[in-house]
Structures are given as C-alpha cells and as structure tokens.
Amino acid sequence: MATTTSPSKPLNSEMPIVASGDARRREAFGQFLILLSLIVLLALTLVPIVLMIFFSLKDNGQIYGRFWGMPNPVRWENYSSGYAAMSRYITNTLTYSSISVLGVVFLSSLTGYVFARHRFPLKNQLYLLILALLMIPGVLTLIPSFVWVKQLGLLNTPWAVILPWTAGGQVFGILLCRTFFSTLPQELFESGRLDGATEFQLYYRIALPLSWPIIVTLAIMHLVGTYNDFIWPLLTISSSEMQVVSVGLTQFTTQFGVTDWGPRMAAYVVATIPLLILFMFGMRYYIRGITSGAVKA
Amino acid sequence: MPGLPRLRHITLSLIFIACAAIFSLPALAQSGQWEQQIGDVVYSTALSADGSVQIVGSRNNRAAAYDAQGNLLWEFKPGSTVWGVSTSEDGQWTAVASEDRNVYLLNAQGEQVWAFRSTRIMLDVAVSRDGSRIFASDEGRIVYFLDRETGEPLWQATLSNIADRVTIYGGSTIRAIAGNRDSQVILFGPDGKQLWQKQLSDSVLSVGVNGNGTSVVAGTLDGKVTLINGANSDTVWQIELPNEVVCNTRESSNCVKVAISADASRILVGTINGDVYLLNGTDGSIVQTQTAGAPVTSVSISRDGQTLMFATREGIVNSTNTAVAAAEFAAAQERQRNLTIGIPVALLLVLAVFTGWVRGTETGRNFWTVQIREPREFLVRVWRSRTSYILIAPTIILLLIFNYYPAASGLYHSFTEWDGVKTEWAGLSQFQALLNSQYFWIGVQNALILAIAAFVKLCVPLFVAELIFHIRSTSLQYAIRTMFIIPLVVPGVVGILLWVNIYDPNIGLLNQTLTLLGLDDLTRSWLGDKTTALPAIIAIGLPWVGPFALLIFYGGLISIPQELFDAAKVDGATWWTRFWRIDLPLLMSQVKLLVILAFIGSVQEFQSIFLTTGGGPGSSTYTPALELYYQATRFNNYGLASAMGTVLFIVILGGTIINLRYVRSQTEYEA
Prior knowledge:
The complex is a heterodimer of chains A (297) and B (671).
Chain A: H1 21-56, H2 60-65, H3 77-117, H4 123-131, H5 138-151, H6 159-181, H7 186-194, H8 199-210, H9 212-228, H10 231-236, H11 245-248, H12 253-256, H13 261-296
Helix pairs in contact in A: 1-13, 3-6, 3-9, 3-13, 6-9, 7-8, 9-13
Chain B: H1 3-28, E1 33-37, E2 42-47, E3 54-58, E4 62-66, E5 72-76, E6 82-87, E7 94-98, E8 102-106, E9 112-117, E10 122-127, E11 133-138, E12 142-147, E13 153-158, E14 163-169, E15 175-180, E16 184-188, E17 194-199, E18 204-209, E19 215-220, E20 224-229, E21 235-240, E22 256-260, E23 266-271, E24 275-280, E25 286-291, E26 296-301, E27 307-312, E28 316-321, H2 322-360, H3 362-384, H4 386-413, E29 416-418, E30 423-425, H5 429-436, H6 438-457, H7 459-469, H8 474-485, H9 492-502, H10 509-516, H11 530-539, H12 547-558, H13 562-570, H14 575-586, H15 588-603, H16 607-612, H17 624-635, H18 638-662
Antiparallel strand pairs in B: 1-28, 2-3, 3-4, 4-5, 6-7, 7-8, 8-9, 10-11, 11-12, 12-13, 14-15, 15-16, 16-17, 18-19, 19-20, 20-21, 22-23, 23-24, 24-25, 26-27, 27-28, 29-30
C-alpha cells in the first residue's frame, strides 16, 4: 500500500553538488564580497556610537579645534559630570520601569494562564476585546489619557507613568503568555487538580516555574520599551526631580550650557549603560520576544 | 381563557402610556437661555420690551438680531466697528452707531431705512420706546436728537466733553440723557433744553433710565454705580462693587456697564473683572452675582426685567430669560419628582403583571420554561467560573481605566470643544477645522513622504539579512548578526540626538566630512534649511539597518525549509531567481508585518521631528502627530487634538486592513 521506498530525506546541504576548482574560487570570491559589504554597512551603522564615545572624551576646545584629532588629553572628567546629570534620571526610570515590569509580568502571566487553561463563558469575546487594543494607536489615546491622568490627580507623580505603562504593557504580555501556556501539557494541571491544588496554586506552582524564559523575555521587552518611552513622560512629568532618562536627556541645554559637548556625550553614554548591561545578559530573550511576537502578529 | 390576554394588553398599554407621559414632559419646555460666540468684541447690546428681539453690535463691523432662543433674525454690516445699538419697545426699529460715522436706522427685517452721517465717529445711539426719536452721540462732543420720519436732527447740542453713552425715555414726551467724560449726566427735554445736569465723581461710562424717567442709573470709571432721582437729580444711592474695579480711560469700553428695567426694580451691572451683578433697584443691594469669564463689555435688561443679557470682550453673548429659567427649574424639579415616584411604580406594575402572567396562564408558563431557562443556565455557568473572572479582574480593570476609557474618550471628544475641564458638543466642526488647517495638510503630506521613505528603507534590512544568510560559516553569521543589533542598546532619544549632532552646522560630522573632502559649498545647516530639513530627518539612521526588521527577516529566512534551497540548487537557479521565487514569497508575512509597522510608525511620527526641528523651519517638517501635540499642549485645544487622533486612528485602521487584505500573504508550499 504505502510505498516506503524514499522517506524524502533532504540532501545533505554541506555536500557540494558540483565541486570544480573554478566554482570553488567563484564561491570564495562571493563570500569575500558578502563580508566586505556587511563590514562597510556595519561600520556605517556604528558611526554615531563611535562618534558618541569619541566626543565624550574630548572637551569643546578639542572638538572645535581638532575635530578629527584623537582625544588628547583624554577628558575622563566628562563622565563624572555626565553621571552627575543622569544618575537621578536613571534611578527614577529604573524604579518606575521595575515596578511596571513586576506588574506586567504578574498580570500578563496570570491572565494569559486563565485564557489558556480555563474555560468560562465569554472567554473568546473577552480575549478578542483585549487583542483589539493592539489596534488602538497611541495618537488616539495620548491626549485623552493625559487629561484623564490629570483628572485622577496623578500628574507629576510616578504613578502617572507606572500605571499606564503597566496597563498598556499587559496586552502584548497576555498574547505572549497565553501562547506559551497553551503549549504546556494538560496532564501537569490535571494531576495538580487531583492533588487538590487551587486555581491560583496551579498557576503559581506549575505554570509559572515552567515559564521563566517567556517571563524573562516579557520583562526585558517591557523594560526596554519603558526605558525608551519619551512622549508620555514628557507630557505627564514636569518636575525634574521625578523625570525619566529619555526626557532628561533633552534638557541638557539648561544644565551644561548650549555647547558643552563633551559632558553631554558622556551623559549619552551613561544613559546607554543600563541598556547595555541588560542586553549583555538578555539579548537572547529579547530576540526571542521580537521573533515570537512577529510570528503571532 | 380569552379574557386574560386582553386584560393583559390593556394593562400593559396603560402602563406604557403613563411612562410615555412622564418622559415626554421635558420636550414641552422651551429653553430660556442661550449663549453664543460672536467672534469679536461685543461693544453693545439691546433688548426689546419683552426680550423677543435681542440686538448685538460688535467690532467685526456687525450688528445682528436674535430671538429669545438665540436664533439669528437678521444681520447688518456697516462699514466699520459697531459702537452702539438700540431698539424700540417692539423691536421694529433698530439704530446702529458705527465708527464709519453713520447712525443707521433699520426696520424689523434689518434693512436700512436711512443713515445719518456725522463728521466724527458715532459712539452710541438710543431709540425711544415707540421708535419715533433717535438720540445719538459722536466723538466730536455733539449729541443729535433725530426724527425717525426724516432722518434729520430736530436739534443738536455740543457738550463740554464726549458723551460715551446716551439713553432716552418717555412715551408722549420724549427726553434724552447723556453721560460724558466730564463726569456729568445731562437730561435734555424734547426741544433740546437742558433740564438738569448732575456732577458725578468720575467719567460716566454707562447710563440707563427706567420707563418713566424717575430713576437714572450711571456707572463711572472709579467703579461706582449711582442711582439718580430723575425728577430732581438727587442721588438716591451710590454703591461700590464688592470686587474693587480699577480701570483707566483706555479700558473704558468695558469698565462698568449698567442697565435698568422699566419699573426700576432691577439693575444689571457688568464689570471689567468679569462679574455680572443683579441689583435691587430700591437700595442697590446685590441680589445675584454671576461670573462671565472675561471683561463685560455690555449689559442689557428688557423693560419687563425678565430678560438679562451680557456680552464680553471675548465675544461671548449670554442671554437669560429669568421667568423661563425659573419655570424650567420648577419643571425640572417636577420631572425629577415624577421620575422618582413614577419609575418604581411602573416597574412594580410591570413585575406584578409579568408574575401574574407567568404563573396564571399556559402561554406564560411556556414562555418561562423556553425563554428564561437558557439565560438562567448561562448565569449559573458564569457563577461557576467566578474564579476565572476574579483572576482576570485586575487586568480588565486596569485596561478599562487606562486603555478603553481614554480611547472612548478620544473618539467622543473629537466631536466636542474640550479644554480638559469644560466639554461642549460641537458636532463635526472640529473635523471641519482640521480640513481647513494648513498645518494639518502639511503634516499629512510629510507623513506620506515619511511613510514611503520607511517602506523603501525596509529594503536594507532585507538585503542585509540575505547577505548574512549567505555566509557559509554559522558562527560568523551569528557574530555579524549580533553586531548589527548593537544599536539596540542606544536609547531611542540618544540615537536621534546623536544625529542632531551629526547635522550640526559647525561641529557636525557631516559638514566636517564635506569640508575634509573639499566640498565646502555643500555644507549647510541641514536641519535649519527648508529644503534639506525633511530629507535630513529621513536620512537619520543611515544606512537604515534596523535591528528589529533585520531580526524578523533573518528569523524568516532561517525558518524556510532547507529542501527548497537544495531543490533550487539542483535546478540551477541563480541567487537572483532564488530570491524572487523562494525567499521573497516565503517572507511575505514578515514583509507584511514590517510594512504595517512602518506605516503605523510614520503616521504617528513625533519623536524624531520633535527632537530635531520641532516642525520647523517654518512649518516645513510638521507631522499630524506633532500638530496634535502642539494643539493640546500649547493651545489647550483638546477637542481638535482628539479629532486629529480619531482621523489618524481611522487612517491607521484603514491602512492595516488594506495591507492585511490585499497584500499577498503566505505562499503555500509543500515540504
């Protein structure tokens, strides 16, 4: 009946099909061209970053006088003034972001779990209603949210950014977590139920420990997203005591004078460091978040 | 039992009629108040005896008549600012004093009957009760007593100083009163004879007289209101207003304005502080205080004292019929009472009839078992799943407060005038304003350019992903991919600010490089030049290897089954044909996603513009989102900003749907 002759196994891709010397030379030249173009593109892409580090070690005299010269003497003290300017903003941002990350991770995983594992009336309608929020652009809600936050009396308090960040970050989080939880084997939960675990315990003891990768992904993505948010803190936070990094970065002219570029660039570098550390540990998770989010959308 | 259903119908109909009667009450009452924006400073207002004709004269060369509900009756456009208006008892004859040096007499339709021309600017005018005499003053210190029939002065008099305001009274014997800048109030007889002259403490800015001339009220520059006995010019009372009024002569047109009813019982006063007082005519005590929100430039009170009107420097005219307003208040109370009693009674009745029907009749029992059981079972199921609902409740509540509510609020407020506190329904007028706003259209044009540029820019990450994918060594692939993702660590704001630095005219990398290459002519202030600002913004991020798009394209490429490439190789396909025949078709879902995201991003583009040019130079780099931000933060124009948000939302929604529906998606392949 079923012919079991060829299981259509793919050809070994490592094995060259034609291996004449001429073709091999062409192949090598092709590889060289590819690498060359990639390196040129990479160099161009990294120009602003190199420029930033370069400038951050010079003073205005060196920048204006010897633009192309190396930093000499190297102005490390730029970093102390850059740090002094940014430290408060960075602390603020990391505080707000962390609280929001905790909220998002907890709420999204819990709600994602319920939507993946529970059956209840109106489940699909509610889920669609939440997903519909992905279609609402920021421009529509920006001003009404601002007025609303103002009416709630949250303006110029940390809650003005923490609460909306948390609420907004959930939508993507729920999507991510639900997809992940529905891949977990049903038997785990069945046995948990037989052992008399409550619904919350099933979530807390079984689902959550199994889902660290996705939780870390969500946390990193949300942290990066909130760290980069600009327009919302710009609208809702006016006191520089409470301001976040992205807005704080634009307020240098008043701190250093218009053209003191060295400390300013040093401050840019300082503002980059938290993300650098985060990516050093979590790049893998972030990339997974981007690609898995892309597959869903 | 055929009797029962009929009884039921009758009962139900009766209940229905009762409810309809209760709810239809509000429709009978007519509004006794209106408020309108005239568009410019209102210098003068006037009312007919019963308030049915309401005249407004304003700086935008306009005199207009409204009825008690604020509907426009007619409009008259003289050659210049209207300083004074007045109308007869029946509203049939209206006089207009204009800066174009004319006094116009208008009939009931607002058509010009005649114009009397003076050599100087006409400041004020008054029309007698029957409309037969018109009294006017000009800037040349002259007052004219005009005859309606001929349009010529019966007499005229030159005063010691300019009379800013005049008034007139009397039926058979018509007398005229003028208040001037020498602080005098002067009474003239019908023949022009000066009957008395009263010296007050400061320039007279406003005068009013009651029906029979017994009470003359005057408002002066020092913020005082004085009531003069019209028979002997004695002062009856004089008051200072509770909020001190301080003005100088330049502000005299809105300092203290007064008006008095025919029986002298009510006096209306408006001040530069924006306060409107209703005074008791007998002793000057304050009956009522209201705030107009802007300096009051004119007040009027009808002869019957029921219609009160005031206008402000901001061009707002407010007219209230106190009798109707009181009746409305009473009616509202009545309605409230009816509802609080009526609704529970009606509900109880309905419940009683329904219970009787379900228990007592065959059809009722049937209905109960068929129709009610299902919803009841649904509720039971909901109750059983209460744990699930409780677990998702925090999420839902947070989303309701910070996501659903603002979205709904944005959609709703795009149909209103909204300053964040007060909301006023404005229909489609915000969208109209948007269509007429040149900034918005410049923004749309720029957003379109940005969107097209964003689509084109997507080619670079696709190209780079292909290149990386073609590297033989996997570890090298990984290393190069990682290096391309490095820019992710730079915060978005820093990324843009670095480019602002690159474009800097003095120490910018771009100009420095051009100088180094000997291309000094090309150097310029890239962001400060109208022709280069937008291209410079588009060029930000050159060579545009977006890490995000790169990851998605690369992820798509490595998920393509290897068999397909092998098959292509066997068939001898070139790199080029393979790209078009295999890679691109299989990457279509990634392309689609990135195109949607690029489109949404460009329509909402704010950050890169705000941080680079702020919309300038001029308005050359405006985007709709930037204009939205400015309308909200600079002008508190939240209604217009919401309308823009709604329009952009619709554009984004439409673009996304078109993209999802018409861009060819996943090509089916068999592995």
